[in-house]
Structure formats: structure tokens, C-alpha cells
């Protein structure tokens, strides 16, 4: 991983958090919040797919010294790191500790488990996969928030998954252009 | 492990009857971790506010001199009027405190307040919360009441080093003990999730409340100071078939604005107010976090 990729990774993760909490002026907040894509999950999904093909100092620092893409220890460390990173998202999104860690770690685990299959999928298939992942993650989030804070059930998991899936082709193409082609 | 953390963070402090003392240090660690992480989290919100702060700065730069002069004149006039009211208030407060002492009442009107600026709002459609730029460095603790120039705004629910999170009075998980100014009837006002309305809970059909009545904090429960306006009754529905009258309030505070607010500093120095509080509002506020 070159330094340019590290910078893009850091800035894009930061930007995803900013976009996740950015408010819209006035009373439009409530209406358009339903169509807000899950920026953080999109970024997580994207980099979990790309990192196995882009080894370097940053990757080794985060996930361990192994150079084999199928090394389970490396991915286990990665999942644990991402679980801890979920704490920060819990505080930013004002949710109970552990909720985002569970979502992030699950996505990272399944993405790393099937990243080779995902590489062969078309853009439409990838978007459908994004829809499924974001929908399941948001249903889980809604279930927990209903349980702990009595939040009502509504169509938010569906709308946010839909907007994330629609955005995915443009989002992934833009980021791929920024970070350049990968190599294993 | 995630489920254990979610349980500890969200539920454990509510189950006061069955609390396991050995879990208290873990809960404290989670609380401290949230306070530490809330500082970098507040930078994220500050970054998200940059378009609005930039737009305000540009508007200030573009404002012409005559408009500023007119605004300045108006502000001076308002300040003069309010200075007069403050002088009267100071005299009334000291008289009130003296009378309370004579009566043997320990309750006193609240003292100082800290001015804070709102710099971000939680964009979740299910909750109404904002960030302010004052934290534990400025003496802010959980549970303090927050008011703006017009009335009760909310309360502090999470404190970082340099920023805090305020739960607005209109949040659906928020409730505040109130009384009707005209009759003195004591009630509970709950949020609806909408910025423009609050609901009075469990109001008897025969209660003497009319549209236009001012509703203010009663000070019960010790969470909010006494006598701050919460809202004005805007609609009443007490038709046949209803067990309780449905009374709607229009909040006094400007909840949509992103200006300045005042944090009312409590007389008590209790950091564990949310754990020790023993009133309906505290239970619902805990659920909101």
C-alpha cells in the first residue's frame, strides 16, 4: 500500500463519518434522512474488498505481518480491529457500545470470506449485494435500537439500503479511480 | 461480547433493583470511554457544520453597514429593557430567598449559568439532540437543564471534555415535570419527536386547562430548575370516549435555531444524577441514551 492510498483511505473514512452526521437545512432533515446512504458501511465494504489486494506498511500495521491473502490470522486481527473501531462509530452515532462493532465485524468477516467471488461479480450484482448487506445491517440496528431505546419500526432500513445500492456503482468507481489498480 | 456491551451500556443502569455491584467498574469504564471518544466525535460534527458556519461568515462579511447599525440599535434597546428586568429580578430573587429562609424552605432559585453555542445536530430521524461547545472542562455534568432565551431547551445527556450532547424537550423519550402557570396543576410533559409540539400526559378530562395557558417547569424531581417556561397550550381534545384529555403544547424555546443556549448549573455536584435520579423523567431520559 503506497502513501497515496493511505491518505485516500484516511480521508475517505473521515468523510464518510462527516457525511453520516451532516444535517440538511431546516425541516428537510426528517424527510431526506430516510434516503441517506449508509456511507460508513459503503466505505467499510469497499475497503474490505480492496485491502487484500493492496498490501503494504499500513496494512501490516493494522492486520499483522502475514503476506498471504488467505491467512486466517490476518483476517481475524482485522475483524478485531474493526470491532474496536465500531466504538468510535457508536459514540458518533449515539448508539450503545458494541452495536456498530458487531455490524462492522460481521460485514468485514463475510466480505473477506467471499472477496474473491465478489471480484468476479458484475456491477449490478455488487449493488444487489450492497443492498442485502446494508438492509440486514440496518434491520439489526433497528431491532437493537427498538429494544434499548424504544425506537419505532419503519421503512428506514429499506430506503437506506436502496439509496446505498443505487450509489454503489458510482461510489466504487470513483474510489477505485482515486486509489488506482490493485495488485496481489 | 457485543450483546454484553449493549446490555451494559443501555440497560444495566436502569435495572436498579437487580444491579450487580461487580459490574459497576465496567459500566464506569464504558461511561469514561464514551466521554473520551466524544471529543473526537465532536470534531466530526464540527466538520459537518462547516458549510453552515462558512455561509454565516460570508453573510456577516456581506452585510452592509446600515443594516448592522439598525441591528445594533435594536440590540441596544433590547439590552436596556432586559437590564431593567434583570435589576427587578435580582431584587425579587433576594426577597424570594429571604422569604424562603423565613419559611424554613431549603429550596432556592438556581444561581449561575454557562453560555454555550450549538454546533451540530444529531441527524437521526428518531431522536432530537444537539451538540454544544461546553464540556466537563467548563463544569458541565450529566442531567443539567438547558434553556434558551425563550424557554426550556433540553438537558445534558452526555458530557465530553470540550463538548456535550443535549436531549431536546421534544424528543419522544424526554419528559419533564411541569405545572400550569394559571392554575398550578402539576403534570408531566412529554416530547412527541416533532420540533413543534409537546404533549401533556395523563391529563384528567375535567382539568382546568385552556388554549393559551403557559406551562412551566415545576422543579419536581430536582432535574430542572423551577419556573422556566416550557410552552403554551395550543390544542386540547377532551371529547367523549377519551380516558384522558389530549393537550398539545407549542414549545417556547427556538428548537430549530442554531444559536446560543444557557446551561443552568446545578447546586448539587452529583455526577451520577442519571443513576441516582428518582423521577419519571430520569427513567425515560436513561432510555433515550
Descriptive notes:
The complex is a heterodimer of chains A (184) and B (289). Helices cover 74% and strands 0% of the residues of chain A. The termini of chain A are close together. Chain A has 184 residues and is mainly alpha-helical. The longest helix of chain A has 27 residues. The radius of gyration of chain A is 16 Å and the shape is globular. Chain A contains nine helices and no strands. Chain B has 289 residues and is α+β, with helices and mostly antiparallel strands. Chain B has two domains: 107 residues; 169 residues, Thrombin, subunit H, CATH 2.40.10.340. Chain B has six helices and twelve strands. In chain B, the strands form two sheets. A six-stranded antiparallel barrel of chain B has the order 1-2-5-4-3-12. A six-stranded antiparallel β-barrel of chain B has the order 6-7-8-11-10-9. The longest helix of chain B is centred in the first third of the chain and has 39 residues. Chains A and B meet through helix 1, helix 2, helix 5, helix 6 and helix 8 of A and helix 1 and helix 2 of B.
- Please summarize the sheet with the most strands of chain A: none
Number of strands of chain B: 12
Terminal CA distance of chain A reads: 11 Å
Largest sheet of chain B: 6 strands, antiparallel, barrel
CATH superfamily of the largest domain in chain B: Rod shape-determining protein MreC, domain 1
Q: State the helical fraction of chain A.
A: over 70%
Shape call of chain B:
globular
Uncertain regions spanning at least 5 consecutive residues of chain A: none
SS element count, helices of chain A: 9
Gap between N and C termini of chain B: 20 Å
* Net shape of chain A: globular
Unreliable spans of chain B? 269-289
Q: H/E series of chain A, N to C?
A: HHHHHHHHH
Please write the CATH class name of the largest domain in chain B: Mainly Beta
Helix and strand sequence of chain B: HHHHEEEEEEEEEEEEHH
The total beta strand count of chain A reads: 0
Structural class of chain B: alpha+beta
Instruction: Report strand % of chain A.
Output: under 5%
Amino acid at each position: 500500500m503506497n502513501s497515496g492510498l493511505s491518505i485516500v483511505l484516511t480521508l475517505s473514512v473521515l468523510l464518510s463519518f462527516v457525511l453520516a452526521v451532516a444535517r440538511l437545512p431546516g425541516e428537510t432533515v426528517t424527510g431526506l434522512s430516510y434516503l441517506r446512504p449508509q456511507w460508513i458501511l459503503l466505505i467499510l465494504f469497499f475497503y474490505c474488498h480492496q485491502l487484500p489486494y493492496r498490501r503494504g506498511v499500513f496494512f501490516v500495521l493494522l492486520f499483522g505481518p502475514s503476506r498471504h491473502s488467505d491467512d486466517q490470522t490476518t483476517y481475524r486481527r482485522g475483524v478485531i480491529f474493526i470491532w474496536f473501531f465500531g466504538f468510535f462509530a457508536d459514540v458518533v452515532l449515539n448508539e450503545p457500545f458494541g452495536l456498530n462493532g458487531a455490524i462492522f465485524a460481521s460485514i468485514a468477516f463475510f466480505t473477506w470470506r467471499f472477496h474473491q467471488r465478489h471480484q468476479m461479480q458484475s456491477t449490478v450484482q455488487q449493488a444487489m449485494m450492497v443492498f442485502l448487506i446494508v438492509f440486514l445491517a440496518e434491520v439489526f440496528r433497528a431491532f437493537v435500537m427498538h429494544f434499548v431505546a424504544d425506537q419505532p419500526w419503519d421503512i428506514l432500513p429499506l430506503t437506506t439500503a436502496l439509496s446505498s445500492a443505487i450509489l454503489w456503482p458510482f461510489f466504487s468507481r470513483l474510489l477505485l479511480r482515486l486509489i488506482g489498480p490493485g495488485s496481489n | 461480547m457485543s450483546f454484553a456491551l449493549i446490555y451494559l451500556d443501555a440497560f444495566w443502569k436502569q435495572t436498579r433493583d437487580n444491579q450487580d455491584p461487580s459490574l459497576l467498574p465496567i459500566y464506569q469504564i464504558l461511561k469514561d470511554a464514551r466521554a473520551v471518544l466524544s471529543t473526537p466525535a465532536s470534531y466530526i460534527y464540527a466538520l459537518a457544520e462547516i458549510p453552515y458556519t462558512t455561509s454565516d461568515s460570508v453573510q456577516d462579511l456581506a452585510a452592509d453597514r446600515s443594516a448592522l447599525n439598525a441591528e445594533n440599535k435594536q440590540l441596544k434597546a433590547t439590552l436596556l429593557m432586559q437590564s431593567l428586568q434583570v435589576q427587578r429580578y435580582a431584587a425579587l430573587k433576594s426577597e424570594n430567598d429571604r422569604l424562603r429562609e423565613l419559611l424554613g424552605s431549603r429550596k432556592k432559585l438556581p444561581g449561575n449559568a454557562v453560555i454555550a453555542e450549538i454546533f451540530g445536530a444529531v441527524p437521526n430521524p428518531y431522536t432530537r439532540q444537539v451538540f454544544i461547545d461546553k464540556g466537563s472542562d467548563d463544569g458541565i455534568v450529566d442531567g443539567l437543564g438547558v434553556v434558551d432565551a425563550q424557554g426550556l431547551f433540553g438537558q445534558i445527556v452526555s458530557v465530553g471534555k470540550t463538548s456535550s450532547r443535549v436531549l431536546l424537550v421534544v424528543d419522544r423519550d424526554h419528559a419533564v415535570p411541569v405545572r400550569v402557570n394559571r392554575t398550578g396543576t402539576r403534570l408531566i410533559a412529554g416530547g412527541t419527536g416533532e420540533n413543534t409540539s409537546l404533549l401533556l400526559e395523563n391529563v384528567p378530562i375535567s382539568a382546568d386547562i385552556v388554549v393559551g395557558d403557559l406551562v412551566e417547569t415545576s422543579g419536581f424531581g430536582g432535574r430542572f430548575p423551577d419556573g422556566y417556561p416550557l410552552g403554551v397550550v395550543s390544542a386540547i381534545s377532551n371529547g367523549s370516549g377519551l380516558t384522558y384529555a389530549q393537550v398539545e403544547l407549542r414549545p417556547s424555546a427556538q428548537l430549530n435555531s442554531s444559536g446560543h443556549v444557557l446551561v443552568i448549573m446545578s447546586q448539587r455536584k452529583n455526577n451520577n444524577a442519571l443513576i441516582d435520579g428518582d423521577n419519571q423523567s430520569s427513567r425515560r431520559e436513561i432510555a433515550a441514551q
